């Protein structure tokens, strides 16, 4: 669907607002249909006996004391910080580098395909090594990744950056 959206916008350059209206209308319809399908689902397995609800106070204590909790909080904070920066990528690619919608869309698809392709290998690495040993180099790479965007606006180079991005975010 992402590629179809890029092709649609590329074909409607003269009436890009109409293209966006069509895309958002289709997305809204898909979300309504998704809700309808989700409401039809049921719990596949009964809640196990002995299951209990963890109260907020107990959860806060676990978060303060546990190594896993600190890692979880760090990753959540890192993802939140990345989410703040992400909206600036689209204007950079579309306006500063003057990419067509087709090329822009292609660049959005590349890290997803890279991540899906590399997940089996990354999973084996995570099994072989401790996940925290993989996480630190990945986070360092993700932190430095934006610097690579400055080096060149050549499309093949941007594809390589996006492949690296998919690999790092897949870790």
Features:
single chain, 171 residues, mainly alpha, 8 helices, 0% strand, globular
Helix content: over 70%
* Helix and strand element order: HHHHHHHH
Q: Uncertain regions: pLDDT < 50 for 5+ in a row?
A: none
Instruction: Please give the number of β-strands.
Output: 0
Largest sheet features: none
| Proportion of strand residues | under 5%
**What gross morphology would you assign?**
globular
Oligomer: single chain
Structural Rg? 21 Å
Q: In angstroms, what separates the terminal alpha carbons?
A: 25 Å
Number of contiguous helices: 8
Class of secondary structure makeup: mainly alpha
Write down the overall mean pLDDT. Answer: 84
Provide a compact summary of the structure:
The protein has 171 residues and is an all-alpha fold. It is 79% helix and 0% strand. The protein is globular and about 60 Å long.
Secondary structure topology:
Layout: H1 2-11, H2 16-39, H3 56-65, H4 67-85, H5 89-96, H6 101-128, H7 131-151, H8 155-169
Helix pairs in contact: 1-2, 1-6, 3-4, 6-8, 7-8
């Amino acid at each position: 669907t992402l590629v179809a959206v890029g092709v649609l916008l590329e074909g409607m350059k003269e009436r890009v607002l109409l293209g966006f209206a069509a895309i958002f209308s289709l997305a809204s319809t898909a979300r309504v249909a998704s809700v309808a399908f989700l409401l039809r689902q049921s719990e596949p397995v009964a809640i196990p006996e002995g299951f209990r609800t963890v109260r907020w106070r107990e959860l806060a204590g676990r978060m303060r004391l546990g190594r896993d909790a600190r890692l979880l909080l760090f990753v959540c904070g890192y993802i939140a910080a990345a989410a703040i920066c992400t909206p600036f990528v689209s204007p950079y690619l579309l306006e500063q580098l003057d990419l067509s919608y087709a090329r822009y869309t292609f660049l959005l698809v590349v890290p997803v395909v890279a991540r899906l392709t590399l997940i089996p290998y990354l999973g084996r690495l995570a099994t072989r090594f401790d996940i925290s040993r993989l996480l630190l180099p990945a986070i360092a790479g993700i932190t430095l990744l934006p610097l690579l965007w400055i080096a060149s606006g050549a499309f093949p180079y941007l594809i390589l950056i996006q492949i690296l991005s998919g690999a790092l975010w897949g870790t």
